[in-house]
User: Fold these one by one.
Assistant:
Number 1:
Amino acid sequence: MAETAAHTAAALDPLEPRPLVAPHHDDKSLNETLLDHVWAKPGKGWFMLFGLALSALGLLVLGVTVTLARGVGMWGNNQPNGWAFDIINFVWWVGIGHAGTLISAILLLFQQKWRTSINRFAEAMTLFAVMCAGLFPLLHTGRPWFAFWLFPYPSTLGAWPQFRSPLVWDVFAISTYLTVSALFWYVGLIPDLAALRDSSKGKLQRIIYGAFALGWRGSGRHWHNYKIGYLLLAGISTPLVVSVHTIVSFDFATSLIPGWHATIFPPYFVAGAVFSGFAMVITLIVPARKYLKLRDVITDRHLENMNKVILATGLIVSYGYLMEHFIAWYSGNEYEIWTFYVNRARGPYAGVYWLMIACNVITPNIFWFKKCRTSIPIMWVASILVNIGMWCERFIIIVTSLTQDFLPSSWDLYSPTWVDWSIYVGTLGLFSTLFLLFLKFVPAVAVSEVKELQLELKHAAHHGSHGTDTAAAGTLTHGAH
Amino acid sequence: MSAEPKVLESYVLAEFATPDALVSATNEMRLKGFEGMDTYSPYPLHGGSEALGLPPSRVPFIALGGALTGIVTALAFQTYMNTIDYPLNVGGRPTLSLPAWVPITFELAVLLTAFGIFFGILGLARLPQPYHPVFESDEFRSASTHGYWLSVPKAVTGKADDIMDQLKALGATHVTVVTGEKE
């Protein structure tokens, strides 16, 4: 394909960084490329995936209905395994969400230009992942219709929440995180919604996008406040994302259970969250950029950079594992030693443990090699393995520590029921449904920001060969629906 | 709804080919003494705020207000609820456990800062505002995608024709006059 040829041509000179936006674009062609997929009728593939996502969503409805009708006894949770799938999946989803904020906020503050093409995508992922995450603790309360008890409100009972409990901190952290992510996402969307309003052909589309665009007209007086506001939102999201997973890790670290009672948990959880989140971005963006024809703005360089982040955070996670094991041994505490060296590595869930090691410690190391960092099939498979590994990590942390704690008389094994599985698979369905709707109705790339970046790049750079230009331009017309 | 009919707003709109042309034309027009101008572009213009002569944004102050409100509110309600109104003895720990108040205080500060920024941006821009006279021009639709526009309120100085000529001399590719609808 000409496009692939263009990219290889650009990659040939190792001294020239590959472009972040294919160099032949101007504002108008960027519009066409980036807004096209909103106006185009979704293809067969989209409908097939959407059907699949909806069926998985059906499983969620089923699982939740059974849980509400018959109670949490339908889950595999038992004594001593009071926390299981619900918390595993909660932590897993929140972690996935974190890469979105990292990309949109932290990389903005560090002025990493490559974030611009992928931030919209990653923020949407954050939003939907946190929605899925929120479901689990809510259902785990057993009677979610009383979930408002978690918030401080003047009740007739005269009681208030216990603010020394990390579980109450969680309520504030997750609800703040969801709200701020949604605001950040929406603020970024407003100029693009205006672009959709103004490039729409039908009246209905114009009205709907117009309503969401709030009458945005790109006024310099508005941009003046918008620019600083957006930067500030990024500024506060950065500590927020760190605080959220820190507080999630406090749920464990402040307890006395062997395997949880560790000061390394906050940084180790945050690194793990970024690790799994970036992997999820790769998993989603690789097919999406192909089918939405976004290779000109989400280039191989973006993917390679993300793989570097996966490698770095993977190493931090590995270090976390190493330290946990070292401290367990160094502490001389027999329960800790039992948990790490007997129960986890050789106990009833040893298979999950070794899968975790294989996926999280070994897999990311392939990204030391440029060939692996730039190979689409390899990175896609690796990203899925990382997500499996991070799920296993949460399983290991939660289940192995609970099944065998201090008293052998209270030990019991845990196995999930079909209701557990259907809720878990169901949230995957919820996530995919929301994501597919997002890809259909909203520009998957922040159009306004890419235009600004493209202007900056044009001002700054003089390179970008002519041959590459024409080759890629040819594919663009060919690719444009 | 006021009883008197609203004075019709009218603007001279000029389109420029590039963002740089728009910024320099705006500068020129401001130096000539035009006031109340506005630029329109699909993304923020470099030097756009300076060209319009805008004072520093007030959004950071609104954000700071949100943050301080969040901190004070969170510390106050946690102390009131867990120390004064319903003190809980958990393992003999002090009922005023300030370190334990930190996470919620932080989260509420961030939440209210975000609200401050969001409603600050919208409030200062007077959005949502579904109608504005500039939308009367069909060509103006390009302002959100690939057009760079300048609006000069006509009422301020003299005639529209004169302004249009001046804008053309500054490189405008397209000039027009828009008048707002009656309220």
Note: Chain B has two domains: 10-51+131-179, 59-124.
Number 2:
Amino acid sequence: MSEILLKIDGKDVRAEEGMTVLEAARRAGISIPTLCHHEKLEPYGACRLCLVELDMGGWTKLVVSCLYPVAKGLVVTTRSEKIDRIRKMILELLLAHAPDAFGLEDLAREYGADRNRFEKEASFCIHCGLCVRYCAEVKKKHAVGFVNRGANREICFIPEVASKECWNCKECFPLCPTEALQAAYVLTEALSSASLSSKREMYVVK
Amino acid sequence: MSRINSPAELEAFRRSLLSERDPNKTCITLCSGSACHASRSREVAASIQAELEKQGLNGEVEFRRTGCHGFCERGPIIVIRPEEICYFQIQPEDVPEIISQTIKEKKIIDRLLYTDPGTKEKIVHESEIPFYKNQGRLVFGSNVEIDPKKIDDYLALGGYSALAKALSQMTPEEVLGEVTKSGLRGRGGGGFPTGRKWAESRNAPGDIKYVIVNADEGDPGAYMDRSLLEGNPHSVLEGLILGAYAVGSNQGFIYVRQEYPLAVENVNIAIRQAEEYGFLGKNILGSGFDFTITVHQGAGAFVCGESSALMTALEGKAGEPRPKYIHTAVKGVWDRPSVLNNVETWANVPLIINKGADWFTQYGTEKSKGTKIFSLVGKIANTGLVEVPMGVTLREIIYDIGGGIPGGKRFKAVQTGGPSGGCLPAELLDLEVGFDELTKAGSMMGSGGMIIMDEDTCMVDVARYFLNFLTDESCGKCVPCREGIRQMLKTLTNITEGKGKEGDIELLEQLAEVAGEASLCALGRSAPNPFLSTLKYFRDEYEAHIKEKRCPALSCKALISYYIDPTKCQACGTCRKKCPAEAIIGGKNQIHVVDQDKCTKCGTCFEVCPSRFAAVTKISGEPVPPPIPEEARTIVRKSKAK
């Protein structure tokens, strides 16, 4: 595999072809914040927190580092006034949903995000999709998914699948950057609304 | 019908078709597009068929149900050829007279003709009506002559000759070269050069490549692609086959909204007919080139008009966009090179191949070549679909073709480009329409929606309307779009409800930056445009709402009050009788008064107050005058006082 040389925050970084800017940066010890990224999962590009600036020779381009492939001679800036401003706002938008999320606390402090900037509408979920993707990509069970779209989008366990698969797994719980309880809550709700027969099945089938 | 196996056979077949068609035979064409369908076109058609039979004209007169003619304001439309007599707003009851008078006696029926609103002159011929006269209908023009369910109609007009030409006389590179040279740009939104997109796919590695028609038109008020697919499906198919040949693809898809039932029906019929004739399938026209098309019905998500979301949906997954750091032309459907163009773009291709890039480039501006179809809706006299060469001004479209603003109102703004576009004010009416010109002005070409607004439209409310649409239509995957535009909508709603506060404009600007810069796909990145463009051109309206709690257009319900001017009220009682909230106090010879506590601001009183009195007014930004004392409410009529 060929080696690619790029510059991140003024530092020469060696990366391999096929890597993303985020991977290259992390390997070089440069930290970039993420919420929806997970090493075991396909890059998703949803939280947009990992955005960085590329120097295009005269103008800069904003890209998300978790998806942008490394290229020879790339000049990357991971922090600037603009990047910080956007990250701060993204965090504030999320804090309206999950004001007490432990996964957001440190980041909010670092970027000076005001948890009271927007009216609170605690749904607890920040839609990072870690649970949904982990279940689909790693466990291959598809027991939890997104339903609806836009502002009404939410995660939902599929009762028929969850009643069989989730009991002994629950590996998604610790991935949740807000409260693991929230996933449990949705799970319980889904199970309680499942038909009696599927519940019975859960206990009967070994 | 037996298969056509070579370009020579196609030409022979076309000659035999034309020899059977007498150009002097009377032909009645009836617009049967979706808009006319809604105004009883189907009943008119049944009536024409029955009447022709009854009056014994079945063999002598041809009757053809065509696609959309464009002048939807006046539908259903009948054109009688070869005289080209044009009748509007035909109802089934008019049909017997049309058959007995115009068809049999060759007499014109005056009341069904178009009347020029300016000169009051009756116009007989389609081509002399200003709405049509000022257009340049290269792509849309054939609609009026083709029964979309009959491939022979398309062939009679020279259909599939571009395909025959390309397959027999041109290499794929030459087809690509011609399209590149024509300067054709995508008609679906971004205006990306079509030739460059094709070349990218052609040069991308891989044996399997796809070509796709984006018929997921979803902008509010836009129906150009729908009408084209309904009215002339073969032109789109021919374009797609040509594109496939140029790119090196053997499989095409048509992604069409299932809410477009007639388009779905007609395109399926067209594909079946093209397969029977041998324009699709194996060894097309004996060239050795194979190509098949599959129709995929979209489930109605606006975001699926975005290329990567459309491709994800085509794969059978939920229609969510994916990053395009590698273009979909290189890595699209199932990670294979995929060329996606919208309906209108594909329909331009046969024209370019037939007549050449040099012919095509004579239309349009330096950077925007050819024509563009717009759907002209909103506060406009002539609602409908219009096709004009790029470079004409907004004024020409709105006034010369569109007939201006009805009801003597003043033009305020034109919204172009759908929810991703923006609003342009009267000062920009002389702007030449082109991709770059519109973008520079803060709007965009989009797929060609054009919503006209008059003085009664509140621009803050327009921004709120589009953000509301986008909040529902965002897929919800990325934070800046899902959360950013949701917060924008909240703030805009507050402003229109009189709850706006100092700092709201700045907050909206910051949210617009985050959504515009950091969103995953074009839906989120362009979502702030309705706000940004209205702020740019109508900032005073925002400030009036926030600072004075006043809606200058007298449109935002929470900021207006209805008030009856005691000096004008004649106690006719109409408003009192019609008020659904029983909020009007009054009686015989008593000046009427609105009970502000009961009023729901539905506006009924304002609408029903006779215009000769015009006593009901709207007030905004100032307190409602106190009701006149009860003892002063009696009207003393001059005639009776004597």
Note: Chain B has five domains: 12-132, 151-360, 371-454, 459-547, 557-641.
